[in-house]
Amino acid sequence: MIRYGTAAIWLLAPLALAACADSAPPTEVVVQTPPAQAAPPSVLMVSPAAPPPAQAELVPPPPRGSGNVAWQPGHWRYTGAAGNPWAWQPGLYVAVPPGQSVWTPGRWAMQPSGGWVWVEGHWA
After folding, report:
1. Of residues 19, 25, 27, 23, the one with CA closest to residue 83
2. Residues near 102 by Cβ (< 8 Å), separated by ≥ 6?
3. What is the Cα–Cα distance from 23 to 1, expressed in whole angstroms?
4. How far is CA 65 from the centre of its chain?
5. Reduced to 3 states, what is the DSSP secondary structure of residue 103?
6. pLDDT at position 85
């Protein structure tokens, strides 16, 4: 009987230590695209908590000679680092693809199963 109790302690100890961590590490979810699209799979980062409020950004004028560009606003990235699990990704200008005109910014979305996932922005 003592042997089973010792085994249970060794099996449960890692779970107890994991519960003591400041923040959970990011969970990676690989999303496969259909073969017809021939795009590589994308990796979604899932956060256990909502991101901080967005930082205010002063949008600079576009760089000289940059052509047709659009501003993509900054957003929080979840890193899962202990003590400070969020890192600010500053906004930037990007070239507008041919035939596109409107950038829909990415956003953090709460998942029905729990956690938050970053939904990439896209052109419309």
Report:
1. 23
2. 123, 124
3. 36
4. 32
5. strand
6. 94
Confidence at 41, pLDDT banded by 50, 70, 90: low
Please, which residues have CB within 8 angstroms of residue 58's CB and are 6 or more apart in sequence? none
80 Cβ contact list (under 8 Å, min separation 6): 23, 24, 25, 26, 47
Q: Indicate the residue type of 81.
A: A
Sequence-distant (≥ 6) Cβ neighbours of residue 38 within 8 angstroms = none
**Torsion angle defined by CA atoms of residues 55, 60, 65 and 66, in that order, rounded to the nearest 10 degrees:** 10
**pLDDT confidence of residue 109:** 94
Pair 118, 108: CB distance under 8 Å: yes
pLDDT in tens, 48-100: 999 999 999 999 999 999 999 999 999 999 999 999 999 999 999 999 999 99
Rounded CA-CA distance 102/124 in Å is: 5
Q: Confirm if 104 and 122 have CB atoms less than 8 A apart.
A: yes
SS3 10: helix
What are the structure tokens assigned to 30, written together? Answer: 């690989």
